[in-house]
Amino acid sequence: MVVKSPAVAPGTEQRIFDAALAVFARKGRDGARLQEIADRAAINRALLHYYFRTKEQLYEAVFAHGCRQFMVGLSQSLRAEQGFEDCLRAFVYGYIDYIYEHQDMARLMLNECLCGGGALERHLTAALEAREGVPGLLLEERLRGAIAAGEIREVDLRHTLLTIVSACLFPFVALPTVRLFHSQAVQDFDRFVHERKSHIVDLLLGGLRPAGIQPPEEVPA
Predict the structure, then answer these.
(1) Model confidence at 10, in pLDDT bands (50, 70, 90)?
(2) pLDDT classification of 148: cutoffs 50, 70, 90
């Protein structure tokens, strides 16, 4: 007897990914239910199992997809820049833009970290071992080159990377606190995010430049 596979409409897998991401982001891996994901994707439970036999498989697939999407996009932006300052700006702007445009993925990563970070650690470890397309490694190389060229002062590279990432992430993972201290985050969040990117880059460059080195003058528009 031949068992027929269920009829699959175009775009079904992407709908499953989108639905699963939304549910996992809000309820975590343990709180999410496959039936809720199937309902949100407008498919039946049997079709969901045709793609992913377990909730754990679906979670890993969604997490891997999000990590790959983030790293590939940001790495391409970093490679396109020649100078250190432009590379730093591309990292900060790209990191914040990704979080802003993919807030469910940001929530998923935060929940993953709060629950022990097993999936995140596995994906980052594999990427670091391959040493390909990891934005943090690319920025670290640019920092090291800028130190050697005298463009920036000697700094602890790992602490510097953590500081940069933390500055980008904090407004999103602690938004209620940010809103208490910065009214613009309530009144006009788009503008707040835009100004946040510029502020982080200016602050970092001011702290990284060697003593006595002045920033280049802006050319009038």
Answers:
(1) low
(2) very high
Structure tokens of 34? 């496959």
User: What is the tens place of the pLDDT at every residue in 96-111?
Assistant: 999 999 989 888 888 8
Q: Can you list the domains of the chain with their CATH numbers? A: 11-53 (1.10.10.60), 63-208 (1.10.357.10)
Q: State the Cα–Cα distance between residues 60 and 121, nearest whole angstrom.
A: 12
What is the value of pTM for the model shown? 0.82
Q: What's the 3-state SS for the chain?
A: CCCCCCCCCCCHHHHHHHHHHHHHHHHHHHHCCHHHHHHHCCCCHHHHHHHCCCHHHHHHHHHHHHHHHHHHHHHHHHHCCCCHHHHHHHHHHHHHHHHHHCHHHHHHHHHHHHCCCHHHHHHHHHHHHHCCCCHHHHHHHHHHHHHHCCCCCCCCHHHHHHHHHHHHHHHHHCHHHHHHHCCHHHHCHHHHHHHHHHHHHHHHHHHHCCCCCCCCCCCCC
Enter the tokens of residue 33.
Answer: 């239910």
Q: Environment class of residue 181 by beta-carbon count within 10 Å: exposed (0-12), middle (13-18) or buried (19+)?
A: exposed
Only one residue has tokens 């996009």, namely: 73
Token pair belonging to 83: 């100078």
Residue 221 has pLDDT above 70, yes or no: no
